[in-house]
TrEMBL record:
It comes from Pseudoalteromonas aliena SW19. Pfam families: ADH_N, ADH_zinc_N. SUPFAM superfamilies: GroES-like (SSF50129), NAD(P)-binding Rossmann-fold domains (SSF51735). It comes from the Bacteria. This is Alcohol dehydrogenase. Residues 19-326 form the Enoyl reductase (ER) domain.
């Protein structure tokens, strides 16, 4: 007989929101074509919002949260995956509208899965997680726009965040000269260890300023949005490129068209959630070649399913630095 499955379960009844470590039966799992033993998941900002109920992330109840996971296939009716394959999932609404990774087992659609690339372990895949994958998509987007290490200085905002710190590391590995913008200047040594050459205060970008400013950066990776993104556009060099993936400062974009029509600047949107499979495979193959085990150990801590709820609260209080990997077995 199958043992019950340990899982974080979110419920909402009569406006009472709850997230508990609970058990579910195999028959409760969704009817999808690939069954998985989840090895590791992670705690992302979005998972923190879902578990604490601080943001409208969960679209149906009960819900198992966890927007990313790595696991081993235990049953499959898909031609793409067979028993014993290691697979990665990021996004596709998993942990929001489909049951996610914060459980011992999951049932998922094969269209959402990619194979674990050669060269990284399952745990390393989740040390990278959605933050590293989104940073990689951003770096690839700059490269596709013709940005090279010779183009000049690259700005990374939200530098101590998951996406920002990965972006710094990846750009440095590829030979770029990286400037990190942060609100935590006391973490400058850490940012330099990751690969930033210059550290500047995020205050330089966070308030309204002129629509065209001194041409300073060849490109930027922004996870902050709002005035920060507007000021980045205004201070890119002629033909510069900025990728936008996040809204840590705000969802607004109080910018002018001046940088676009007078300096040929490009603004490239990065979405990791619905990204086509070929792009995912490309990004993960690059990640497998660029990250090293020491770096991943330095930026992550491992917890168990029992410790998820408490850590989600701490994540929302801004008390966690780096990646939280959840051992789901
Ligand atoms: P984190 O919370 O780990 O990091 C965000 C960082 O932004 C913080 O560490 C901080 O860096 C900076 N920051 C926070 N508040 C402000 C503020 N008011 N003004 C300026 N900077 C601020 O988040 P992630 O790195 O995981 O994600 C970053 C953003 O990207 C989020 O908005 C997230 O939702 C989004 N995202 C989008 C994805 C997509 O597919 N488009 C995928 C993944 C994430 P510091 O302390 O160094 O200043």
């Amino acid at each position: 007989m199958n043992k019950p499955i340990k899982a974080i379960v979110i419920n909402k009844e009569d406006n009472n929101y709850s997230a508990l470590l609970s058990t579910i039966e195999h028959s409760d799992l969704p009817n999808e074509n690939v069954s998985i033993n989840v090895l590791y998941s992670t705690l992302n900002y979005k998972d923190g919002l879902a578990i604490t109920g601080k943001g409208p992330v969960v679209r149906s109840f009960p819900m198992v949260p966890g927007i990313d996971l790595v696991g081993i296939v235990t049953n499959s009716t898909s031609d793409e995956f067979k028993n014993g394959d290691n697979v990665i999932l990021n996004g596709f609404g998993v942990g929001e509208k489909h049951w996610g990774g914060l459980a011992q087992k999951a049932a998922l659609n094969s269209d959402w899965l990619i194979p674990l690339p050669a060269g990284i372990s399952p745990k390393q895949a989740m040390q990278i997680g959605t933050a590293g994958y989104t940073a990689m998509l951003s770096v690839i987007a700059l490269e596709k726009q013709g940005i090279t290490p010779e183009s000049g200085e690259i700005l990374v905002t939200g530098a101590n965040g998951g996406v920002g710190s990965f972006a710094i590391y990846l750009l440095n590995q590829l030979g770029y000269n990286v400037t990190a913008a942060t609100g935590r200047l006391d973490q400058s040594e850490y940012l330099k260890e990751l690969g930033a050459t210059q550290i500047i205060s995020r205050d330089e970008f966070s308030t309204p300023s002129k629509p065209l400013q001194k041409e300073r950066f060849a490109a930027a990776i922004d996870s902050v949005g709002s005035h920060t993104l507007a000021n980045i556009c205004a201070s890119l060099k002629y033909g510069g490129v900025v990728t936008a993936c996040g809204l840590a400062q705000g969802m607004d974009l109080p910018a002018s068209v001046a940088p676009f029509i007078l300096r040929g600047v490009s603004l490239i949107g990065i979405d990791s959630v619905m990204r086509p499979k070929a792009d995912r495979i490309e990004a993960w193959d690059h990640l497998a070649k660029l990250v090293n085990a020491d770096y991943l150990d330095k930026i992550s801590t491992e917890i168990t399913l029992e410790q998820v709820i408490d850590n989600a609260e701490r994540l929302m209080e801004g008390k966690i630095r780096g990646r939280v990997v959840v051992n789901c077995q």
